Structure formats: structure tokens, C-alpha cells
Automatic annotation (TrEMBL):
Family designation: Belongs to the ABC transporter superfamily.
ABC transporter domain sequence ranges: 2-234
UniProt KW ATP-binding keyword: yes
SUPFAM superfamilies named in the record: P-loop containing nucleoside triphosphate hydrolases (SSF52540)
GO molecular function: ATP binding; ATP hydrolysis activity; branched-chain amino acid transmembrane transporter activity
Swiss-Prot/TrEMBL GO biological process terms: L-amino acid transport
UniProt keyword annotation of Methyltransferase present: no
Pfam families, sorted: ABC_tran
Native source species: Desulforamulus aeronauticus DSM 10349
Protein name per its UniProtKB record: Amino acid/amide ABC transporter ATP-binding protein 2, HAAT family (TC 3.A.1.4.-)
Record keywords, A-Z: Amino-acid transport, ATP-binding, Nucleotide-binding, Transport
Amino acid sequence: MLELNNVNLYYGRIQALKNVSLSVREGELVALLGANGAGKTSTLRAISCMHPIKEGSIHFSGTDLTKVPAHRLVDLGIAHCPEGRQVFGRLSVKENLELGAFRRKDKEEVKRDLEWIYSTFPRLVERRSQSAGTLSGGEQQMLAIGRALMSRPKLVLFDEPSLGLAPLIVEQIFDVIKKIKEQGRTVLLVEQNAFQALGIADRAYVLETGTIKLEGTPEQLLSNEEVKRAYLGG
Ligand code: ATP
């Protein structure tokens, strides 16, 4: 479904991605792991056309994503849940969620999806009229996930959804990501929290200074000494 081939991405003279190749099959949950600055966010930026690539190719269900303007991604079925959430602070929770569905015409289905999101995150029901900027970090993350899902994406890109959240909330967020996959959606999950990401992933890649170092199933990576040392605390 998603295929990156030998992608090279630069910020000025700094090369952030070096010959990155990875693939995500339909229905798969793939984790992209790595330390700070490894290039995880840059990979997602390249996929969602937020930063041009210098060399290589990126295809989504046969469409060349390097030729697609970023605002068309939703039409293709790709939703990006960016790092730092980026909800619309002055708008209410409900307005943020509705914005996620603004290109959809199937109003009844939109209503059903809204109900699913409220039932998944009851906290958002209590706060639906509250402005998003006044939510806690965890609540904003729930809202960002909810908003991404309101577009009914085929592929969801998550950028560090657990960043800065309390352990209990992290667990809840990972449970929801697992549910999203079980609904038949495809997920690419960028995480520093390797242990938890491997708990729900089908496969994972490890990025190191812009290069894919390892690829495998959670079982393979969890038994790899290098991975254990570098990402799982020994
Ligand atoms: P983190 O987990 O800290 O967000 P990351 O794995 O997502 O890290 P990237 O944000 O993709 O890493 O960054 C990869 C490299 O590119 C880093 O060395 C970073 O300093 C550099 N970089 C990222 N954005 C820019 C930018 N706008 N201008 C210059 N360099 C950048």
C-alpha cells in the first residue's frame, strides 16, 4: 500500500534521510523506531508531502506521492497525526472533530464516526464544547487522533502519540491505535517508546541517523541484542 524507495531528504545541506526504503502492506501496523534526530518525523513529512525529497520514490496504492499537493492527501485516504498534536486551540472539541470530516458528504456516516470517537474517548464527550487549547496534553492527543479518524482514512500516520503523556494515558492511546488497525485501517506508527510500539506492531523498522538499520517482527527485534541495548534499556 505504501512504498518508499531509496528516499533522500535534505534540510539545506543536512541530509536527514539516506536511502530510506520501507513498505507498509494493507491492514498492517508498522512501527518506525529510533532515537531523537534519527529521521522519524522527516520520514512522515516526506510521505505526507510536507517536505520535498531529493531522490527516491514514494508511492501510495500506485499514486506517486511526490507529485501530490499536501492538501490532497485526505482525498487519497491518508491522515497524519502530527507530533505536538496541533489541534485548533480556539475551536471547540466538537468543531475540531467536525473539521476532520469537512470533505465528506456522507453525513449519516460522519455522525456514526463521531459517536464512535466519543465512545472511544468518553473524556471528549464531557469536553465537547470546551476550546481545544484548554485541554490537557492527553486530551489533546485523543482529539488529534479523533480528528484524523473523522476523515475515514485508509492509512493513518502517527508521530510519537505517546510523547509527554502519563503512563495510563499512553496505554489508552496504544489500545486505540490497536483498535484502529483491527478496524482494517493501515497504520504507520513513529515512536521512541519502542517497547510499547512493538507490543502492538506487526513489523517494525529501526532508523539510525537517517538510515534504516534493522527491520523485523516484534519477536525478532525484541530478541536482538543491539535493539535491546539501544532502545529497550538493556
Ligand atoms: P525526534 O524524535 O527528536 O523528533 P526524529 O527521529 O523525528 O527525532 P527528525 O525530526 O526527522 O528526527 O530529524 C532528523 C534530522 O534532521 C535531525 O538531525 C534534525 O536536527 C534535522 N532536522 C529536522 N528538521 C530540520 C529543519 N527544519 N532544519 C534543519 N534540520 C532539521
